Amino acid sequence: MNENATSPMVDNGSSEDVPASNSCSKDESYKYVFLPVCYTYTCILSLALNSIILCSILKRRKEWNCSLIYMFNLALTDFMYGLSLPFLIASYIMHDVWVFGDFTCRLVRFLFYFNLYCSIFFLTCISFHRYLGICHPMKTITMETKKTARVVCVLVWLVVLALTCPIFHFAKTATFNNATNCWDDALDTEYPHYVPYGIILHSVGFFLPFSIIAWCYSRVIKTIFKTISNQEFKSAVPGLEKRRKSIKTIVTITLLFALCFLPFHVTKTIFLVNKAVPDVACATKRVVTICYKVTRPLASFNAWLNALLYFLTKDKWPQNCLKPKKNADDSKSSWNIFKPFNHLTPPS
Q: Where is this region: Disordered (predicted)?
């Protein structure tokens, strides 16, 4: 195994995994503390928050709308990812030793990427739905039905499954230094095939959806501020300051998601390019590897940060959680992810 392997678990390699003859060794002992702490934090919050969301939404199935359908699927994939983290945490604590078998290794690695891109795709659906609701409200009535949302969710699951299923081939267990390890990306012999796949995965799974989200929100923000600058409309809208605060909150959370996804995909892409380019300086390899491994748990934070989107766009959460609404119309509106914007569409 050469140095390009970095480690049996690409995101958690260590200097002891590198042959002594290799001059470009790396001290990665930090990961045995940093990564377990990050993933433990993510595991607890992901399981707790998403279980609350799933139970709460399931109790109100008759009140489902397009937004809730997307949020339910988003919470479901985040919950599934949280269930896989204890295996990864245990492996880090045991210094990369994997004792859970080859299939579990492949499943855990698969679930990381499956969750990551399901989250990105469902956030894209929510963003586009929000864009239609604010910029083209009449189209929302005809295009955005519950049946359409269900079909879109099924398509998202199938597309992401197709994008990430090669992970089951590349991720595997291997023996190194008399210990079984779980490889994250690919063995050295398979990297010529993995690098192009990884770049395509990042382009289709992140950079394309991220561009769509950025475009949608640029149009949403433009429409909102154009509307609230209308003095006649401005005077007719009650609680306008509260809606402005809601806008700031949603934009802030959206940027927070971008900060989770963007650093990981940029550093991972550079990491893959470094693998493909020969004679990369040792210092460069060290910096890129460290950045990649630090941003990987940052990307996993989306498993619980996504829950904030639900809580922040739901009105009067504590009351709704504890007891049902008496008024059916109020109940429906309280679950509407567009409630902060209901009155922001200018009159025709």
A: 1-24
Sign, CA torsion 62/67/68/70: positive
Q: Which long-range contacts (CB under 8 A, 24 or more apart) does 212-220 make?
A: 212/124, 212/127, 212/128, 213/123, 213/124, 213/127, 213/254, 216/127, 216/128, 216/130, 216/131, 217/127, 217/131, 217/251, 217/254, 219/131, 219/135, 220/130, 220/131, 220/134, 220/135
pLDDT, tens digit, for every residue of 272-313? 888 778 777 888 888 888 888 889 888 889 889 888 777 776
pLDDT, tens only, 223-261: 777 776 665 555 555 445 545 554 665 676 677 777 789
Instruction: Give all domains of the chain, ordered by start, each with its CATH number.
Output: 3-341 (1.20.1070.10)
Q: Which long-range contacts (CB under 8 A, 24 or more apart) does 318-322 make?
A: 320/56, 321/52, 321/56
Give φ, ψ of 174 to 5 degrees: -150, 155
Report residue 78 as tokens.
């985040």
What the block records as the tokens of 326 is: 């008496």
Q: Return the DSSP state at 10.
A: G
16, 98 contact by CB (below 8 A): no
Distant-in-sequence, close-in-space partners of 16: CB < 8 Å, separation ≥ 6: 177
Residues 122 and 43: beta-carbon distance below 8 Å: no
Beta bridge partners of 95: none
- Sign of dihedral through CA atoms 170, 172, 174, 176? positive
CA atoms within 13 A on the CB side of 111: 20
Give the CA angle between residues 154, 156, 158 to the nearest 5°. 70
Enumerate the β-bridge partners of residue 179: 176
H or E element: which one contains 322? helix 317-322
